[in-house]
Amino acid sequence: MKKVDSIKVFGKEVLPLVEGGKGVSVTTGETAGAWAAAGGIGTFSGVNADFYDENGQIVSQVYHGKTRGDRHKELIEYGIKGGIAQAKIAHERSNGNGLIHMNVLWEMGGVQDILHGVLENTKGMIQGVTCGAGMPYKLSEICAKYGVNYYPIVSSARALRALWKRAYNKFSDFLGGVVYEDPWMAGGHNGLSNSEDPKIPQDPYPRLVALRKQMNEFGLNETPIIMAGGVWYLRDWEDYLDNPEIGPIMFQFGTRPLLTQESPIGDAWKKKLPLLKKGEIFLNRYSPTGFYSSAVNNDFIQELRGRSERQVSYSRKPSEDHTAEFPVGPRARIHYFKPDDIEKMKGWIAEGHDEMLKTPDDTFIFVGKERADKILTDQIECMGCLSACMFSNWSQHEGGTTGRRTDPRSFCIQKTLQDISHQGDIDHNLMFAGHAAYKFGQDPFYKDGFVPTVKQLVDRIMTGD
User: Fold this and answer.
1) Which residue among 42, 165, 229, 348 has its CA within the 20 to 30 Å range from the CA of 97?
2) CA distance linking residue 125 with residue 99, whole number of Å
3) Rounded Cα gap, residues 410 and 174, in angstroms
4) pLDDT value at residue 2
5) Are 275 and 441 in contact, with CB atoms under 8 Å apart?
6) Smallest Cα–Cα separation from 432: which of 301, 313, 323?
7) Among 76, 29, 19, 26, which Cα is nearest to 52's?
């Protein structure tokens, strides 16, 4: 394949390989530092990042506040401490090589406070901030204040245009690159728009060409595009190298670094990765963010699928479609349903799904009492990890609420990601992964259970494989 050349970023020659940031303690200072030490750009997650006590032990992020607002303040304090801790580790492990980036989600709770708190206390340690999951208009201003580059994650030229016109044109000197994340292939949260069919993937090439054309119109001819989502072998992207329609390009790897010696995920998770089959990653819309996301179709996802499948519409008064009466709740209040749904409802109740929970869309879902109690507990214990949460109706604006009914079809994302990233059950927690994760089981590099170091992985990637 074509020779893969280094690229100059933030005044330094680095390999065109970027470690993708994976939230809640899955990409850490250890992994980011090792990736940078190997010559690339290492990225630690600034989403609920771990910090440590005087003995080097992870401090459990326990919330003591009696109100959501109080717990939200604690979350921000934890986030700043964790970001600082991971930046210091990454900086030390890099041995002065490569670059270190911090990854955040624009829709995470307190993101602006956390960015200010971390960047203010890690000067010289972080060279860039990558950010997606929303429209991060203020990202450019914050990064420029601290003299670091910013890297918005977009899935279309239109998204970049909106960001540029509103804010980025004022801070263009600090735009280090634009991450194009394939919304059909990437793991975690995806940027699918309402006009795009989640079941019909689009070829990324014309989308990147459109993005480059838009960037050139803004005078960003030499600003690299970072291709993310579905990247495994560089040889598969050979046509993108030295291509005037694409321009300067780098490649981001999010899924492959999961299976390295430095990766902090548990052994059960690492052993599961080579067993994944094609199609086992499920693109869904259960996330409390409202975005699509991609995760392993395990028991956790299947339980969420079951909730939505056991769902019927209702009306408080008789209507043209809803004419059948049915008692709901301990007071047996009459609601009206479609006649054809009554037998289904009775069947679900007979199976033990005898708790009916209302959704914001004038529907009921049917779950067992234990599940209903857990949903209610998680909603009550919300700590405001998102700027706005469908599951708990928390909002860090608008008086602390979205003003909508809580949505029991979703889940507390902070709890499950904290659990799985700290040796929790891999079957009953959310396990994010890119759609190319099945290649672990096909790639001869991982034959006989081989788990590489980050350096070995980077060296392997640079061969084209």
Assistant:
1) 229
2) 9
3) 37
4) 84
5) yes
6) 301
7) 29
In angstroms, the CA 114 to CA 124 distance is 17
CA R_g for the chain: 23
Task: Write 210-215 long-range contacts (CB < 8 A, 24+).
Answer: 210/156, 210/157, 211/154, 211/156, 211/157, 211/160, 211/178, 211/180, 212/245, 212/246, 212/247, 213/157, 214/157, 214/160, 214/161, 215/160, 215/178, 215/247
Under the phi-then-psi rule, with left for phi > 0, alpha for psi from -120 to 50, and beta for the rest, what region is 419? alpha
Q: What phi and psi, each to the nearest 5 degrees, are found at residue 5? A: -90, 155
Cα of 266 vs its chain's centroid, Å: 19
Burial class (CB in 10 A: 0-12, 13-18, 19+), 301: middle
How many other CB atoms are found less than 10 A from the CB of residue 291? 18
Cα 337 → chain centroid = 37
Taking the mean position of all CA atoms in its chain, how far away is CA 446? 25
Bridge-partner residues for 258, per DSSP?
none
pLDDT along the chain (465 residues), means of 10: 88 95 90 98 95 92 93 96 97 97 94 97 96 90 97 94 95 96 92 87 95 97 96 96 96 96 95 95 93 94 97 95 94 95 96 97 97 97 95 91 95 95 94 95 96 98 95
8 A C-beta contact, residue 257 and residue 31: yes
Yes or no: say if 45 and 26 are a contact pair by the CB < 8 Å rule. Answer: yes
- Pairing relationship of beta strands 17-19 and 249-253 according to DSSP bridges: parallel
Write the DSSP string, 84-117.
HHHHHHHHHHTTT-SEEEEEEETTBTTHHHHHHH
CA distance 149 to 136: 14
Among 395, 396, 406, 326, residue whose Cα is nearest residue 372: 406
DSSP helix, strand, coil percent of the chain (3-state; round to 5): 35, 20, 45
The residues, any chain, with a CB within 8 Å of residue 144's CB and separated by 6 or more, are: 150, 171, 173, 174
The torsion angle over the Cα atoms of residues 361, 366, 368 and 369, rounded to 10 degrees, is 50
Considering the chain, tell me which residue range(s) the CATH 3.20.20.70 domain(s) occupy: 7-269+437-462
Alpha carbon distance 387, 281 (integer Å): 27
Domain 7-269+437-462 in CATH 3.20.20.70? The answer is yes
Query: 188-190 and 292-296 as β-strands: parallel, antiparallel, unpaired?
Result: antiparallel
For residue 143 the two structure tokens come to: 């990064």
What are the two backbone dihedrals, phi and then psi, of residue 228, each rounded to the nearest 5 degrees?
-135, 150
Instruction: Tell me 401's DSSP state.
Output: B
Q: Please name the amino acid found at residue 199.
A: K
